[in-house]
Design goal:
207 residues, mainly alpha, Arc Repressor Mutant, subunit A, 2 domains, three-stranded antiparallel beta sheet, globular, disordered C terminus
Length: 207
């Protein structure tokens, strides 16, 4: 399951790509039984779609769907961060600080795959510390659906420097256990992510 998710997240499997079981087993080095279970799960989550009985493909997200996903994230991520502050012990906050440094370094290096992977690890720590597995599963689905947009966004130099500042603000608020400041910082981060992912430099939607 994890290897298939990562293949979609990193763009190895692009939206619209028809999935061939034999090829995927070889490419991902997984058994056919494991692959079929992962395919069924991702289809149930709406990540994969049926091509009129010609197999499965990675779903292509519409502009409207993408806008809705970012609006939901704008509510969900601040909630998860608040719950992290409520539930995570100091040791988990220190771990999050260390991961934030790795994330900022990934942004500075500018490799899209590394940024997306490191950011996933950063949010995995927050979601785990929040003790809210339902929100965790939902956020993973939402970010996977918009992974092509995210990869395009994170390589923009202006977005990279902006994201570093936003991550600093989120982590600083968490370290102080300031839920109000953390909520605002998370909202700002998602709002700016949405603008970068959905718009070109001239402000026109580009999907």
């Amino acid at each position: 399951m994890q290897s298939l998710r990562r293949a979609i997240e990193t763009g190895y499997l692009e939206p619209g790509t028809r999935l061939v079981e034999k090829d995927l087993c070889q490419q991902l080095n997984v058994s056919r039984t494991s692959l079929r279970e992962a395919l069924r799960q991702l289809q149930a989550e709406g990540i994969l779609t049926d091509l009129n009985n010609r197999g499965l493909a990675v779903v292509t997200v519409t502009r409207e769907d993408a806008e809705n996903i970012y609006r939901i994230r704008g509510v969900l991520e601040p909630l998860i961060i608040e719950q992290f502050i409520e539930n995570a012990p100091d040791a988990e906050i220190e771990t999050l600080k260390a991961q934030s440094e790795r994330l900022k370094q990934a942004y500075r290096q500018g490799n899209a795959e590394e940024i997306v992977s490191t950011k996933r690890d950063f949010y995995d720590l927050i979601c785990t510390g929040a003790r809210n597995p339902i929100a965790f599963d939902l956020l993973k689905k939402l970010t996977l659906l918009t992974s092509p947009l995210r990869r395009r966004s994170v390589v923009r130099p202006e977005r990279q420097s902006q994201s570093i500042s936003e991550i600093d603000a989120i982590v600083a608020a968490i370290a102080k256990r300031d839920k109000v400041a953390a909520h605002k910082a998370a909202e700002k981060h998602v709002a700016n992510s949405s603008l970068s992912a959905l718009h070109t430099g001239d402000g026109v939607i580009d999907l």
